[in-house]
Design a protein that fits this description.
Chain lengths: ~250, ~250
């Protein structure tokens, strides 16, 4: 392979603010960024539209959306009895960097995607191999990290180790894969400030979970856990969120 | 979680003979088997029909087919120039246990799926977590093992390590995940013999790559690399392949 002036990186982009800033971090670090999003059933189109806006505004060289029919594994038919259903984490947004919806306790939500980051990183690894990229960026951060096993540093290290033996590229001398999570220890306030520094237009991003508001397109409710987490981050950073809220 | 009389296992089932025997091995080892197949663009329906037959005949408790639109990552638009395209392995059948098509040299085939076993295992891990299963069976074997990085024992070990930190279940005491590849060191002849011992009807399986023959449904060409590999295995084992061949 030829040496690339700008080494390539695959960036997981959901349309949320965390992955938008992660994409900007990848570009600031000198990478040619290839944005990757997933359509897996629970999406409202507005999220993937936001991902496309974020990828374009963030200077991604390409943006691909992979359909993943994980709904085939969901539903009440999945297990024989509720007593055998293991405990699983709470609802999570699509964004690998997305807020963890800390207030959303209760039953397993229909949007829960088991082993989500493992699946997303596996697909990203496949694209990276095809592109000759050796870096995968994802926007997990401290908020996720506190709750989800697959947002922890030891998970990211284990995936790097796997990638090293999983691919033809990874077995080449000096060609190991790197999983980069530049926001791993960042709070929402840190991320809002970093967006300002990097010139990321957070007005292009979409965070809100509210399905009715999502159906109205490009507006955020300001009340759901994801909105509240985002707004609290902006407030803590002393910044104004450029997104339009139904309930400001 | 309650203790299960028959512990659950997720088994990757493609419809080929290797995964059919792997499913039987899982059942023989006392597992309640949950069969998992993938539809990802390059399939002819006949393969997934074979997978459904194999799962039913093999006594799987359930069979799910996950759609995976990896075609979004393929195609010539993927890279800017051919000089930057990394070397990738040769064509591979859908079956994680499938033959490696050793004679199929040349250009990158449209059916190539980068990091395939990583993606399949990641989805299997998600389903396993939901089911409370701690074992994932896949049919990789010595033929694949010689050619593909993601069929090697060190890959399987690295995935087990990843699974241990990727899931809520994996972080529980004594709840580690196991990746089982009972045919890892088996030749095609070994697999044909083992099928006989376990009572697996290999007449239900589908191996042939030939698209015209596939289009004719349930017949095998007897000439493609996959068919030749399979037939050589039966011949070496002194057994007759029950599948109908166009060219016997």
């Amino acid at each position: 392979m030829t040496t690339q002036a700008h080494p390539r990186a695959v960036c997981l982009v959901s349309g949320g603010m965390d992955s938008a800033v992660t994409l900007a971090e990848a570009r600031a670090a000198g990478f040619e960024a290839f944005a990757l999003s997933f359509r897996y059933g629970q999406h409202h189109a507005v999220e993937l539209e936001a991902a496309a806006r974020v990828a374009a505004a963030g200077g991604a060289a390409d943006h691909r959306i992979v359909g993943l029919d994980l709904a085939a594994l969901g539903g009440s038919a999945l297990v024989d009895g509720p007593d055998e259903r293991p405990e699983v984490p709470k609802d999570r947004s699509f964004d690998p960097a997305g807020p963890a919806a800390p207030g959303d306790e209760g039953a397993i939500p229909s949007t829960y995607v088991p082993a989500r980051n493992t699946v997303f990183l596996a697909v990203a690894l496949g694209w990276a191999e095809t592109l000759g990229a050796r870096h995968i960026f994802l926007g997990v951060n401290a908020v996720d990290y506190s709750g989800y096993p697959d947002c922890r540093p030891e998970f990211l290290a284990a995936f790097e180790a796997l990638a090293g033996v999983a691919t033809a590229a990874g077995t080449e001398e000096g060609a190991r894969f790197h999983v980069e999570a530049p926001l791993l220890h960042a709070s929402k306030a840190d991320i809002a400030r970093r967006a300002l520094e990097l010139g990321v237009d957070l007005g292009l991003t979409h965070t809100c979970y509210d399905p009715e508001v999502q159906a109205a397109r490009s507006l955020a409710c300001g009340r759901c856990d994801a909105c509240r987490l985002r707004l609290a981050g902006f407030a803590e950073a002393g910044l104004v969120d450029p997104v339009d809220y139904v309930t400001p």
